[in-house]
Amino acid sequence: MARITAGIASSHVPLLGVAADMGKDRNAYFTPIFEGYDWTREWIAKPEVKPDVIILVYNDHASAFDMKIIPTFAIGCGERYKPADEGWGPREVADVEGHPDLAWHIAQSLILDEFDMTIINEMDVDHGLTVPLTMMYDAPDAWPVKVIPLAVNVVTYPPPSGNRCWALGEAIARAVQSYGEDLNVQVWGTGGMSHQLQGPRAGLINAEWDNMFLDGMVGTTQKLRTIPHIEYLRETGSEGIEMVMWLIMRGALGHETRALHRHYHVPCSNTAIGHIVLEPVDGTVPPSSTLEGTNAAAQAAI
Ligand code: DHB
Ligand code: FE
């Protein structure tokens, strides 16, 4: 049976990809940022921790999708994904290898569980996905893990609610638990923390609110799931809404979590960088009424 063993949340600031690619990650500006990930790099390389697959929740920044198509929740079921060209040419990092079999299983389970996912077989992936991989794994010739991209619309209004994201995470946990092969699966949530990239409030940072959010990822509290969009906008700037993606990861870890590592630093480009590593203490998630009911036979047949 596949198992969700840990969750990671991390900002996905594009400048960090540039710093790593140019070998500047240990200069005076970037050292306090990259140092915050040293613990995680050592931890994730341990044989007993090393994931086989990451379900990587991120948002596309008009690289694969644009105003022509705006899926609220999309799952990548492809074999591989290339780094997107974000204006300076594609980053010279390894292609991302998918896990089509598990991805299709999750897509089927989620849709029967009444989460109407968009299925993507071909797309390029931008800094939202590749920068967190760089922060955790440096620059290997091939990423040491398979990745199932799960893209969330947080760019064009309306993004999904935090509550819906949390519930999607719970449905992902049910999907992973019903996959027969013994796989070590991690769920990552990326984006945030407080930042606003444009307009009169550009550069806004709210360390107090960000730390309240980090606190809320730990333990049994579910108070983060009811934060309304307007509070993210007011307190954390227009791009702070990316943090709803962390709640998909948190929902997937179940009833109770423990923090293994936590890091917060300002400034990082226009952003407060935040990063937390969580372990499920009690990974129980509520049962799905749908999977237990009308779609049970179909689900059992997967
Ligand atoms: C920055 C942060 C982001 O999350 C992003 O998608 C683009 C830019 C920044 O801080 O510069
Ligand atoms: Fe972003």
TrEMBL record:
Domain Extradiol ring-cleavage dioxygenase class III enzyme subunit B: 8-272
GO MF annotation, one: ferrous iron binding
SUPFAM superfamilies in alphabetical order: LigB-like (SSF53213)
Keywords of this entry: Dioxygenase, Oxidoreductase
Stretches assigned to coiled coil: none
UniProt keyword annotation of Transferase present: no
Entry-linked NCBIfam families: PRK13364.1, PRK13365.1, PRK13366.1
Protein name: Protocatechuate 3,4-dioxygenase subunit beta
